[in-house]
Design a protein that fits this description.
Chain lengths: ~230, ~325, ~220
């Protein structure tokens, strides 16, 4: 057994009072909403930054294949570090530890691999004949990229964004451990205070947020891929 | 012998039957082709023989016994089955693919091996080369041959074939059709063959069953009879406006009863006796002449337009009884 | 620093933590397979069942691991057992999705030919559907395994033990070598899992399919 606080928790949890609705009503605006807002904010910023980095890197890797393996190696290595560890490491680095930055850095790092991989896969999926036809019609490389390749690659790229977003929302819950804010705060505080209601609110909201984001992006993915919408299983 | 007796199929929840009161007989050793437009129920009818689809009304008799006397699985192991998508098992070698039903029936290893080699030979694939390969390594035409070999493996008396040569290009298809007809001459299986292509039906069938939308039998007869005497407007138009020309493709010029070509034939077009009358006519017209010399077994016959007309005006047999040319 | 990390591995409690982590991950994975595979097999021929399974799987994949582990607390208490329940639930989705999709995507022409030749339903399942779907199924198991190893790190928060304990300890006591030791151990474990299951995946891919893959390649 690791943590002494948890030993005490064991005693208290014999009581079957799981959800204290009074507490929820009282602290809704004080605790719950800020946590939710913080979580959404963290996720948005992280996916935004990640995209700004990953899309150009993805496009370049698709063009200059030699660069792709090292890029995959680096982002893959970042991905395999356990999230808890990466967060803890980042916060130990002096100068990085201000507010939500270590969490954002970690979230961005985790999503790079999938975003870059899907950007490359998306661009690879564009049929060569289509690009050939475009070139034959006189489009410049830049025009081909923005008017032909990226739009056709979009469904796969969005699929990657969907996975990355869900991952980010998940890891952001852990970010609360190093005081990064977000819904994880409710969870960890709940554990520390031996208060199931907090734990459940945080966990349920985090789960709901992830599912909503997943479904919205799934709808976007389907919308972008009309030929797959009508597919029969 | 396969007999359809008042066979109907209606899917639950549907008002109209997809197969409607179908009755006909396929004699032993003959190929009966089911042909018709989309939605005529030809594939459904075929699949009712081996009970992949169950009959709603009527019965199908195989050699006098209804096909429900055995379980579906047992029945199918006695009927050869070849389909358009072929359906070779990609994870098994060609030899294992072909040996599937024999293995299910409990044949011993040696017997299976010999049979596999024999069949590969029959379909024109060298056993040593192909036995241990995997389907992904074969071309479409080769895969289709393996499909036929697989259907023949347990030497079933009956075979069901649903567009079995459909997945390849037209040139390969003709080759496969010819080879299969050659094989059939030896093995004489009783076959129900489905196609949407009337030309394939005419070429392959000893009997043709033309089906209409809604699974109704429009006409059941030999190809020659259907071409010479279509029963209805539907059959007539389904068979095609070039019906008479199609009849010409049923006979070879070498089989015609032609007047001997005497001397003075050196400057005439020479036509090989193995050509169909239709192809010979085509060459004749193209040559700009009105007569040509047909070579067969060292003898020369004189081919004229009148001779062809007489052939058409003759009886309904497939064997020509062309009258004399009016000279 | 490297020495200090190695010293952590030499600690008497390290093998226990490593064992806990491995047992947690392995048992969760095996139970998840035992639940997901029969379900995938049962729904393999029905369209509705497959749709439900895939939707549950997709939603399950989105759920944050920490949230599920935390939810186990009020209902199952703290400790190993609780963590195991949560990790099992988390391990099911990738396997369910891959197994369902893999079985359903076996070419319908192949199955029709098999039925037409007289193979029974169970012969088709074991002789055709499962072998052909095997690569996809094992890919799903691999994904789930790696994911479970990573999530097991969080078991520490509900008293489940495992290598996460080291990370937490290192963080709260400001002993970076302990933290790094824990992080490194999990990372190596994850890589071993990925590589190991990758080999398993290749081993269970039938030869004929490998050839087909290469040709398409």
């Amino acid at each position: 057994m690791s943590n002494p606080a948890l030993l005490l928790l064991q005693d208290v949890l014999e009581e079957p009072k799981l959800i204290d609705w009074e507490w929820i009503k009282e602290n809704f605006w004080e605790d719950i909403v800020p946590a939710l807002q913080g979580h959404i904010f963290l996720s948005f910023i992280s996916i935004g930054i990640a995209l700004i980095i990953a899309l150009p890197v993805g496009v370049l890797s698709a063009r200059y294949r030699k660069a792709y393996p090292p890029v995959t190696a680096v982002t893959g290595a970042l991905y395999s570090i356990p999230s808890l560890a990466l967060l803890a490491i980042l916060i130990s680095i002096p100068g990085v530890a201000i507010g939500p930055s270590p969490v954002i850095i970690a979230l961005v790092a985790y999503s790079l691999l999938i975003l870059i991989r899907n950007t490359v896969a998306g661009l690879d999926s564009v049929p060569p004949e289509t690009i050939d036809a475009a070139r034959g019609m006189g489009l410049t490389n830049r025009q081909i990229l923005f008017r032909v390749e990226l739009p056709l690659a979009l469904p796969i790229i969005v699929a990657g964004i969907r996975i990355a977003t869900v991952t980010i929302i998940g890891i952001a819950t852990i970010g609360a451990y190093i005081n990064g804010g977000g819904l994880g705060t409710l969870i960890f505080d709940g554990i520390g205070r031996q208060f199931p209601t907090m734990i459940i609110s945080g966990a349920v909201l985090a789960t709901a947020l992830a599912i909503v984001a997943d479904l919205l992006l799934l709808a976007l993915e389907r919308y972008l891929r009309p030929w797959a919408r009508a597919r029969r299983t | 012998m396969i007999e359809f007796r008042g066979v109907s199929k209606t899917y639950p929840g549907s008002e109209k039957p997809v197969v409607n009161d179908l009755s006909f007989e396929v004699p032993d050793g003959e190929i009966c082709v089911l042909v018709g437009p989309s939605g005529c129920g030809k594939t459904t009818s075929m699949r009712m023989v081996n009970r992949l689809i169950e009959i709603t009304e009527g019965e199908i008799l195989i050699d006098g016994e209804t096909n429900t006397s055995l379980s579906g699985t047992q029945l199918r192991r006695k009927i050869g089955y070849a389909i358009q998508q072929i359906g070779l098992f990609p994870h098994r070698t060609i030899a294992v693919n072909i040996g599937t039903v024999p293995k299910l029936l409990g044949w011993d290893k040696n017997r299976i091996k010999n049979r596999v080699d024999e069949l590969l030979d029959t379909v024109g694939l060298a056993p040593d080369d192909y036995r241990d390969r995997y389907p992904a390594e074969l071309s479409g035409g080769q895969q289709q041959r393996v499909g036929v070999a697989r259907a023949l493996a347990a030497d079933p008396p009956i075979m069901l074939m649903d567009e079995p040569f459909g997945a390849v290009d037209p040139i390969t298809r003709v080759g496969l059709q010819d080879e299969f007809l050659r094989i059939q001459k030896d093995i004489k299986k009783t076959i129900v063959f489905v196609t949407h292509d009337i030309d394939e039906a005419i070429k392959m069938g000893d009997k043709i069953a033309i089906l209409k939308q809604g699974g109704v039998l429009a006409q059941y007869d030999t190809p020659a009879n259907i071409l010479a005497r279509p029963d209805s407007e539907f059959v007539s138009s389904f068979v095609g406006g070039d019906r008479v020309l199609k009849r010409l493709s049923l006979t070879r010029v070498g089989e015609m009863d032609l007047e001997r070509a005497n001397g003075g034939t050196d400057d005439l077009l020479r036509i090989n006796g193995g050509l169909t009358v239709k192809d010979a006519l085509s060459e004749l017209i193209g040559s700009g002449h009105t007569r040509a010399v047909v070579e067969k077994d060292g003898e020369n016959g004189l081919l004229t337009f009148e001779a062809i007309e007489d052939l058409m005006g003759g009886t309904s047999d497939e064997d020509s009884n062309g009258g004399e040319s009016s000279e | 620093m490297l020495f200090k990390i190695l010293e952590v591995y030499a600690r008497p409690d390290f093998p226990e933590k490593l064992r806990q982590h491995i047992v947690l991950s392995l048992v969760a994975l095996l139970v998840a397979i035992a639940i997901a595979m029969p379900v995938a097999v049962m729904i393999r021929n029905t369209r509705l069942g497959a749709a439900i399974a895939i939707n549950i799987g997709n939603i399950g994949r989105a759920v944050p691991s920490l949230a599920i582990l935390a939810l186990a607390l009020p209902f199952f208490g703290i400790g190993f057992g609780s963590a195991l329940v949560a990790l099992t639930a988390l391990a099911i989705p990738p396997i369910l999705i891959n197994a369902s999709t893999g079985l359903r995507e076996v070419d319908k022409g192949i199955i029709d030919a098999a039925r037409g030749m007289g193979l029974s339903g169970s012969q088709i399942l074991t002789g055709i559907q499962l072998p052909i779907a095997a690569p996809v199924i094992f890919a799903g198991i691999k994904t789930s395994a790696v994911q479970t190893v990573a999530s097991a790190t969080l078991a520490t928060f509900i008293g489940g033990g495992g290598l996460g304990d080291l990370i937490v300890e290192g963080y709260s006591r400001k002993g970076p070598e302990i933290l790094l030791a824990g992080a490194l151990a999990v990372a190596i474990l994850a890589i071993i899992t990925e590589v190991g299951f990758g080999m398993l995946e290749r081993a269970f891919t039938p030869k004929g399919l490998k050839i087909a893959q290469k040709r398409r390649g």
